[in-house]
Amino acid sequence: MSDLRVPVGLLPLALREVGFRHGDQDLLKGITLQFGSSGKTLVMGPNGAGKSLLMRLCHGLLRPTEGSIRWHGGGRLGGQALRRRQAMVFQRPVLLRRSARANVEYPLVLQGVSRRQRRRQADAALERFGLSALAGRPARVLSGGEQQRLALARAWVMRPEILFLDEPTSALDPAATKAVEDAVLTFHEEGTRIVMSSHNLGQARRLADDVVFLCRGRLLEHSPAETFFTAPASAEAAAFLRGDLVW
Amino acid sequence: MESADNAFITAFHLIVSMDPVLTGIVLLSLQVSLSAVLIATLIGLPLGAAVALWRFPGRGLLITLLNAFMGLPPVVAGLMVYLMLSRAGPLGQFGLLFTPTAMVIAQCLLVLPIIAALTRQVVEDLWKEYAEQLKSLGASRARAIPTLLWDGRISLVTTVLAGFGRASAEVGAVLIVGGNIDGVTRVMTTAIALETSRGDLPLALGLGLVLMLMVAAVNGAAFLLGESARRQAG
After folding, report:
1. CA distance A167 to chain B (A)
2. Is B98 in CB contact (< 8 Å) with chain A?
3. Which pLDDT score is estimated for B225?
4. CATH number of the domain that B53 lies in?
5. Is residue B150 in some structural domain?
6. Does domain A2-242 have CATH number 3.30.310.50?
7. How far apart are CA B63 and CA B117, in angstroms?
8. Do B133 and A61 count as a contact with CB atoms less than 8 A apart?
9. Is B26 inside any structural domain?
10. Strand (E) positions, A23-177?
11. pLDDT range class, residue A246, cuts 50, 70, 90
12. Domain count, chain B
C-alpha cells in the first residue's frame, strides 16, 4: 500500500498545441512548451496576452479547448488529486471569513489531516512567513501585503510540487513586494517549481531562471532569462523590454 | 366592555404572574415555531446551496417556484396541509390533523422557501468570489457547501430569522391544521384572534405583548451574534 502511495513527481508539465477559444476569439493558440522539474519561470507579456489564462489552464481550473496538457507523473490522477499537489496564488487572494490560522488550516482540512497535525503545520507555516503574531486575527482585516503572505502560507502547507503565482505583487507596495519575492525564493529553495506571471521587469530580472513571453495569445519566446533580457528574439519582446507599448 | 387601560393592566398582571393559560400558549407557540424553523433550516440551507452551485435541467423553474412560495399565503399552505392530513388525504392514516405536529408541518412549508431561496442568493454570490480559489485548494463542489454556508453565516442568520418571523407571526396555517383547540393546539396568534373576537382583551393583549417581546428578543440576540461574528470574521 505505502509503495503505491509514494508520489511520483508530477513534473515535467508538457503543453502541446494548447488553445483556448471563447466565443469566436482565440485567447490562446498553439502553445507548445514544457516546464521542467525545477527552476523559476516568469510568464511575461502585455495585459491581455493570456498570462493568467495560461496559468489557469496549467493548474486545471480551466480546460483547454484545443491541444493537451500533460503531467508527466500524473498518470491517472483526476483533476482534484492533481490540484492538491499544486498550489496557486492569485493576484487578489480569496481568504475565507475566518482567522488567519483557520485559513492556513483549510487545505489540510480538505485533505483530512488530523486537528492536532493541522494546527502544528499551520503554526509552522505562519511562523515561516512572519505571520505568527496575526494567527488569531480575522484574515479579511489584514493588510494587502499580509493577505498575500497568508495566501503563500496557505499554499505552503500543501507542500506543492509546483506553485503558480498570478501577478502576486501587482497591488502591493515595495516592502510587501519584497516579502512576497522572498517567500517565492523560500518555496524555490524547498524544491517547489515556480511559475509566476508579472509585468514588472525588475521583478522578472530578480527572479527568473527562464522567461515565457506571450503576446496576443501566442507564445513568442521561451528562453533562459539571460538570453531573453539581453537578446530577445522577437520584435515584440524587444519593444516590451524597452518599455514601449506592445499589443 | 372594559376600557383599554384596564385591559393593559390586566394583561400586564397575566404576564408578570405567569398565568398558566398564557404560559401554556406561549410555550406551545415557541415549540411549534422553533421546530418548524429548525427543520426548515436543516433542509433549506443545503438545498439552497445545492441549487446555487449546480446547473441542472429545471433549475430556473425551481428557483422561480422557491421565490414564488416565499409569498405563499399561510391559509393556502394550511389548506394544502389540511388536504394531505385529513382522514381522506394521502397521509390521513397517521391521524396528525389538529395536532402540534400538523402545525409544525404547515409552518415548515411556509418557512422552507424563504430559507432556501435566500440561502441560494447568499451562496451564489459567495461562490462567484470563492469558486476558483476553493477549486484550486482542492475542494469539490459538494465539499464547498459547508465552507460557503459557514462563510455566509452572518447573512444566513438573518435568513433564518426572517423564517422565524414568518412562522411566529402567521395565523392562517396553524388555525386550519391545528384547529385552535384549547390546551392542545392553541398558539399565540390563534388565541389573540379568538380572544379579541370574544372580547377578552386582557389575554389577547398579554399574548400580543409577549409575542412582540419574543420576536424582539430573538432579533436582538441574532444582531449581537452577527456583530460578534463580524468582528471575528472581518
Report:
1. 15
2. no
3. 81
4. 1.10.3720.10
5. yes
6. no
7. 7
8. no
9. yes
10. 25-35, 40-44, 66-71, 86-89, 162-166
11. low
12. 1
